[in-house]
Amino acid sequence: MDVAVLGATGDVGRQICTQLVERQVLPTTSRLQLVGRPGGTSGRAVHGLRADLVDAYDEHAPLLDVALDPAEVVADVVVVAAGRTAPAGSGGVPPSRAVLAAANADVFRAYADALAAHGSGSEVVVVVSNPVELGVAILAERLGRHRVVGMGAWLDTLRFRREIAVQLGVRRHRVGGFVGGQHGDDAVPLWSTVRISGLDVAERQRAVARLRQGRTLATFPAEVARAKAELLTVAATDVAAAFALIDSWPPDLRALARPWMTHQSGAKTATGTASATIDLVETILDGRDIVVAGQVALEGEVSVGGSPVHGVLGVPVVLGPEGWSRVLLDPLPPDEDARLAEAGAAVAAACAPWTGAAAVAATSDPPTSDPATPTTGEPPR
Ligand SMILES: NC(=O)c1ccc[n+]([C@@H]2O[C@H](COP(=O)([O-])OP(=O)(O)OC[C@H]3O[C@@H](n4cnc5c(N)ncnc54)[C@H](O)[C@@H]3O)[C@@H](O)[C@H]2O)c1
């Protein structure tokens, strides 16, 4: 099985390539295609990245290949990590979600069209680039929705599980449960899906109630906004204190605030993002169906706020070698249902200018103001 990484020389792409090789996810007979952009700096650096990986891992590296033309991308799993990102650190004005969308919609379209024309017709695409929902929408339109999954919800899920595990004093693998919604501020911690191995239902309910401290998701967007404002003030003079402050908050808030602060600190979230991406790649290569959370293009499999969702949303899905097959989501409590509905509306508004009939107009005349009404216009981390 072969893997292609688009944007291989970027911070996230390089981490994905390195971890794929270092963790020996691919046998030496498989091929890892490093994809850069002709004319850009990545078109040169991608050759250097190949040499560096061989230098480090020659004994167990898969066949390493370079591609600079989208038409040359051929693999069983294609990871999309190419495109513009919000610069790390707190200096300057970061591009809004809409500006990021305008820049990356072209990247998504270019690779979607190339894969539709020249691909095998069965490759599974894992979207990392942001806005991840837009990437899923554009690629799913051209390749078929079941072959495209966004990894933002899985990364959010791992962060949520970790924060719960830390608070309970257990290892992360003992905690189940998912985060859905939109990657970023409209991520929805699905508390009703949380499971803790070793605890029966009553014990789990008591533990979750303790962790939630009487809050519901109705107040979550306001808490996130307040948390960011507080962190900016504290981090202006003491970044360590800002991270310590996060430790005092409940797990769902920590799961959003910590990566945001990481980005603000000037570090990026490339390592964790790559590790979560590789989880999904391994699942697809493994041949077994596993339940993960991912952004997928729904056609009414899920209803939120009383209406079936026709659009991209992060939900728990069964993922396997042919992509995602089913959504696994029981009826939700009112606060989770309401937040998921809001996230679905925010995604729909954000994707509308770039998908379907609007995409043709958007290609020649992209909107310059933020078309969406998410909790904030900030891009996700
Ligand atoms: N989904 C998530 O959870 C998550 C987390 C972190 C970052 N991201 C996203 O991943 C993407 C990459 O982030 P990064 O930090 O690596 O950015 P980066 O700027 O370090 O790298 C981007 C790479 O994309 C390449 N690129 C741009 N256009 C291209 C094209 N048309 N063809 C091939 N390559 C192209 C650039 O040359 C560069 O190497 C961003 O969109 C970022 O927002 C997503």
TrEMBL record:
Source species: Cellulomonas wangleii
Record-annotated Lactate/malate dehydrogenase C-terminal domain positions: 155-247
Higher taxonomy: Bacteria, Bacillati, Actinomycetota, Actinomycetes, Micrococcales
Annotated stretches, region: Disordered: 357-381
Domain of life: Bacteria
Short name of one Pfam family: Ldh_1_C
Keyword field: NAD, Oxidoreductase
Protein name, per record: Lactate dehydrogenase
InterPro entries in the cross-refs: L-lactate/malate_DH (IPR001557), Lactate/malate_DH_C (IPR022383), Lactate/malate_DH_N (IPR001236), Lactate_DH/Glyco_Ohase_4_C (IPR015955), NAD(P)-bd_dom_sf (IPR036291)
Domain Lactate/malate dehydrogenase N-terminal: 2-141
Similarity section: Belongs to the LDH/MDH superfamily. LDH family.
